[in-house]
């Protein structure tokens, strides 16, 4: 039996996100750039001066979706942000490990975080990525596709929206999404399902009045669980539905009917769509 040490792809980050852009947009962009098998059987590593501008909760989202480009795991250089996060949380001693100065990467990719826009993944594959500013062109491109992985999309109007899942159901995700929906209403044609990722997050959001903002807007708030992500309960989509979701996968039939369309995006983009009734640039709401 042979065990092969996985090769590593390094992402060097610089700059910082512009308003309305988050870690979810970064990982979607990278999946679109490398492809859903672009890091197959490999490790992806994030570092560089821009890493300090990405919060721990957003890094968890990035790591969560590393597998969506085939990676065995996603790792980050330890830094002050991590040390601050671990303070008073660690139950055991820990030690930081850094890349060897002479290490050899299979590939090094430089990313300027300030160059990114909100991203959207079109059905039925996480690698069907476009910036929100180019959605109309990408929709026309889909209409010429014959692939089951990249199906024709005739409209950006949605019937359902989902904020939650292990990918984007954390406290910070809800805080950012609340900036979009506060004082507004969910579109009358949209079922907006909202599920904090854990009971701890749920209780904190309730205590801080954040869940009330979503309740006042008309969102359907459910107890902490996977929700419609795996297609079994609490928001499962039907035939002809179009959902935008903060979860991590949009395969055919993933969240219900095989005749539904699933789009993936950040919590902010999902919430903006729930308000507008269609997928829009969330930055105009911020």
From TrEMBL:
Keywords of the record: Iron, Iron-sulfur, Lyase, Metal-binding
Aconitase/3-isopropylmalate dehydratase large subunit alpha/beta/alpha domain residues: 3-277
Signal peptide: none
UniProt cross-references to InterPro entries, sorted A to Z: Acnase/IPM_dHydase_lsu_aba_1/3, Acoase/IPM_deHydtase_lsu_aba, Aconitase_4Fe-4S_dom, IPM_dehydratase_rel_enz
GO MF entries: iron-sulfur cluster binding; lyase activity; metal ion binding
Taxonomic source organism: Candidatus Roizmanbacteria bacterium GW2011_GWC2_37_13
A Pfam family: Aconitase
PANTHER family: HOMOACONITASE, MITOCHONDRIAL, HOMOACONITASE, MITOCHONDRIAL-RELATED
Domain of life: Bacteria
Protein name: 3-isopropylmalate dehydratase large subunit
GO BP terms in the entry: oxoacid metabolic process
């Amino acid at each position: 039996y042979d065990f092969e040490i996985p090769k590593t792809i390094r992402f060097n980050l610089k700059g910082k996100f512009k308003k309305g852009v988050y870690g979810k947009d970064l990982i979607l962009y990278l999946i679109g750039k490398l492809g859903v098998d672009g890091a197959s059987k490999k490790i992806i590593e994030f570092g560089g001066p821009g890493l300090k501008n990405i919060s721990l909760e957003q890094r968890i989202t990035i790591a969560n979706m590393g597998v969506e480009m085939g990676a065995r795991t996603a790792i980050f250089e330890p830094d002050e942000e991590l040390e601050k996060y671990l303070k008073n949380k660690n139950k055991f001693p820990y030690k930081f490990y850094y890349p060897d100065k002479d290490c050899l990467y299979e590939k090094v990719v430089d990313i300027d975080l300030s160059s990114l826009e909100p991203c959207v993944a079109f059905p039925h594959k996480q690698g069907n990525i476009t910036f929100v500013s180019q959605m109309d062109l990408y929709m026309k491109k889909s209409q010429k596709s014959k692939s089951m992985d990249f199906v024709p999309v005739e409209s950006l109007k949605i019937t359902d929206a989902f904020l939650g899942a292990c990918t984007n159901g954390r406290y910070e995700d809800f805080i950012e999404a609340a900036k979009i929906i506060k004082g507004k209403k969910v579109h009358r044609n949209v079922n907006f399902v909202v599920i904090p990722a854990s009971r701890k997050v749920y209780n904190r959001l309730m205590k801080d009045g954040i869940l009330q903002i979503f309740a006042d807007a008309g969102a359907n708030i459910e107890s902490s669980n996977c929700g419609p992500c795996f297609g079994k309960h609490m928001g499962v989509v039907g035939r002809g539905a179009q959902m935008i979701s903060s979860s991590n996968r949009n395969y055919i039939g993933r969240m219900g009917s095989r005749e539904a369309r699933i789009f993936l995006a950040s919590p902010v983009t999902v919430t903006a769509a729930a308000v507008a009734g269609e997928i829009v640039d969330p930055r105009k709401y911020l």
